[in-house]
Design goal:
With 368 residues, the protein is of the alpha/beta class. The chain contains 14 helices and twelve strands.
């Protein structure tokens, strides 16, 4: 029994659709398969009942309720068939917290400890405002064996308001072996690349507004990610930017190949957790311009990028111009970003931290 692999049930979204959390899940699944001391099974909670840009309230409520029932059934099946020792539950908050609470009750019924992995960066704000979402999350965190925060501000907020909750801070990670070789081929066109959902909260409109004001000859803006074509058409008609291409949703490999040819990566989101795509840009040695939300300021500390306020066209424009007009600065930022990604965010380093949390929870459960 001592040599038996630790049985983990990961409750998390798997692609499609592609997104930061689903990419992380796929990376965990693949890496765990190569480890003899872990048996990782999944309950896939990806929302496939609506388009990512469809945020209509009634669809989210009704569809979310049906999905909660589906996810609960899938967890029950896993608990009965696989008898996992640990449940690792990821959450993006909001309405999903209702599902989290139900899944935790089910896990507790089977006496299985839950690791509650908070995958967004809004916790300090909702805790300060004492929102309904925060009230529900407090219930969930108190039921968990361990809470995982992906950034320091989230950890501090939870320590402040819930000092008795056991919490670990573990960053997201990047798999260097899965990335393409950096493409340094000379070209007449230099590229700024955005990768993410093409929706308002990713700052796409601010990006196009800033780009339309910059007038950078020899530079092209490539936007990669799924989105509503009518929304894209409206933005193009409103701002009429030059030298811009919408590539739509690409496979992760294709997106990384395009990113490897970039001269700068940009992510002007309104909110983020610990974005994998920023890690991937760092691991490819790219200079980064991003908003100061979620864990991004921590990630880009040490001259690894430039952060700006969300929804500020002026700041975004100035930051992009500063990077694009200074090749020496671009190279310096890229070198710093690559070094930090290797030392702090590599898959091997971060997976050991997850393993330590799982093993500690399993040992504690065995002692009961």
């Amino acid at each position: 029994m001592h040599d038996s692999p630790l049985r983990i049930c990961m409750v998390a979204p798997l692609p499609p659709p592609y997104g930061g959390i689903s990419h992380w899940s796929a990376m965990m699944k693949k890496y765990a398969a190569s480890q003899t001391n872990i048996q990782l099974e999944f309950v896939d909670i990806a929302p496939r009942w609506r388009a990512i840009h469809d945020l209509s309230h009634w669809k989210r409520i009704i569809g979310g309720l049906l999905q909660t029932l589906r996810d609960s059934w899938r967890l029950l099946v896993r608990l009965i068939q696989d008898r996992p020792q640990i449940i690792h539950l990821t959450t993006s908050g909001q309405l999903a917290v209702f599902r989290d609470l139900l899944l935790m009750i089910i896990a507790k019924t089977f006496l299985v400890p839950v690791i509650y992995h908070i995958r967004f960066g809004r916790v300090p704000d909702i805790a300060e405002r004492s929102t309904r979402e925060w009230f529900l999350m407090k219930l969930a965190m108190r039921m968990a064996h361990t809470v995982i925060a992906i950034d320091g501000l989230t950890r501090k907020a939870i320590n402040k308001y819930l000092p008795l909750v056991k919490i670990e801070q573990i960053p997201n990670c990047v798999n260097f072996s899965a990335l393409p070789q950096n493409n340094d081929q000379s070209s007449d066109i230099s590229k700024v690349v955005f990768i993410g959902w093409v929706i308002p909260t990713k700052g796409v409109e601010e990006l196009l507004a800033a780009w339309s004001q910059m007038h950078m000859p020899g530079w092209q803006l490539d936007i990669v990610g799924p989105g509503d074509q009518n929304y894209q058409k409206a933005l193009l008609e409103k701002y009429q930017p030059q030298n811009i291409s919408f590539h739509g949703e690409l496979s992760h490999g294709a997106a990384m190949n395009l990113l490897s040819t970039a001269d700068c990566f940009v992510l002007p989101s309104y909110t983020e957790g610990f974005p994998n795509v920023v890690l991937e840009a760092m691991a490819l040695g790219k200079p980064i311009v991003a908003t100061n939300v979620g864990a991004i300021p921590e990630m880009l500390e040490g001259q690894c990028g430039i952060v700006v306020k969300p929804q500020s066209v002026k700041e975004l424009k100035i930051a992009l111009q500063t990077v694009l007009e200074n090749e020496v600065l671009r190279k310096s930022i890229g070198v710093s970003a690559l070094s930090k990604a290797h030392s702090e965010y590599s898959l091997e380093v971060v997976f050991k931290k997850y393993l330590n949390v799982w093993q500690e929870a399993a040992r504690k459960e065995q002692r009961k």
